[in-house]
Design goal:
There is one protein chain. With 456 residues, this protein is of the alpha+beta class. It contains 14 helices and ten strands. A five-stranded antiparallel β-sheet has the order 3-4-5-7-6, with helices on both faces. A three-stranded antiparallel β-sheet has the order 8-9-10. A two-stranded antiparallel ribbon has the order 1-2. The longest helix has 38 residues. The protein is globular.
Amino acid sequence: MKLPGRAGLGSLAALWLLVLGSLLGLWIGLKRPREQERRFPAGTAGRGLPQEQRGWERCGPGAAAPARRPPGQGESRGAQKTFRALLTLPAAGDRGEPLEGPEEPAQSSQPEPRQRQNLEPGSREPLAREAPVDPASLVQGGIFWSRALEQQVPPGFDPQQAALWLETARAARVASLERGGCGRSSNRLARLSDGSRACVRYGINQEQIQGEALSYRLAQLLGIQQRLPPMALALVEARGRQWGQVRDELRGSHWAEGAVVSLTQWVDNLTDVVAPAPWRSEAGSGRRLQPLAAGELGGLTQSQLVELVQWTDLILFDYLTANFDRLVSNLFSLQWDPRVMHRATSNLHRAPNGGLVFIDNEAGLVHGYRLLSMWDKYNEPLLRSVCIFREATAQRVRDLHRLQNAASELLRLYRTHEPLSGRLGFLSEQQAQLLQGRIDFVYKHILHCKAMATSL
């Protein structure tokens, strides 16, 4: 009788194991989609120019849209699962393997404010309190923002104050280095001996620091440098005068002795920026981006229009530098996050006065040009979606196209204003040609917009 009893207990145990296994399988099956969702977090995703000339010749109705640019010379290095992984692609002759450690929020020049305002772009009060502006007063010459509207744009970084900060930062000693608040885990927040603060960026490879420095000077060449925080280069020397007080912190940072880093002025109280409605609604719904023209401005409020003026400069700037680490990253993330266009835009913030601040431009020019074949399918449609421009910016583009001297003017500014320019070098001949080619493409696009406006 004992044998049947034991057999019965064995059968019962086997039955319980089968039930537990089924429940475990069901739980794992329910959990996997959530893990997959967490794997893709939301939202990851000058001098020397001729005097400005006011007319735009060859702008008749027959002007054609610029042809789509062929794929760039950069290589995509294979499909990537996440956008951020592309920032760690090493170039030939880089500093080695990417540094370990999680990527901090893409914000990068300061910690998150205590209260984030998630208002419509440019607004500091509910939109219901603002009346729409008459479209006839917004655009002149068919494609240029009116001077009256441009005068409403909040000022950015004052050139004289920026120059003074750069001089001070280059001469100051670094009193402390802290983790956090400046993006990548390899970066540090520095307190300088004069009491000011700066984000110190240590690139995964040299081309990222090059991109940051050259983008800052290209913004100067285009006349939009006031939208970028002042940025200077510094040489890491543990026993040198500037870094001697933080020798222990340098050892913990694993920075290479003699590396070139960038110092960017810290800005307090920045808030997130969401893409304006013209791009947010179209891209978010999967529709092709349509050109933003004068006829599309009806019903917009003053604060929305003031921010659009700044956005048109930003999109033109990011196309010229091939920067994929801003609005392009949001567009890329649409494939797994359909509401990403309603979330904060990477590396773009709003100052307390409402002005936009273009931060962390290290993906521009050198790194961006290497990956053109992957990212121009996002950057080019964004450029084509803009058919209203700041006239001063358009004139700079026209002059650089006419004289075919974009790279030489950029090099002149870089060498004149950056003492460590020789340490990093400049664009290669191929990259210089790419920059001029993109200047020419933007010029032709402006002509096309002018022709379209004239034909209406």
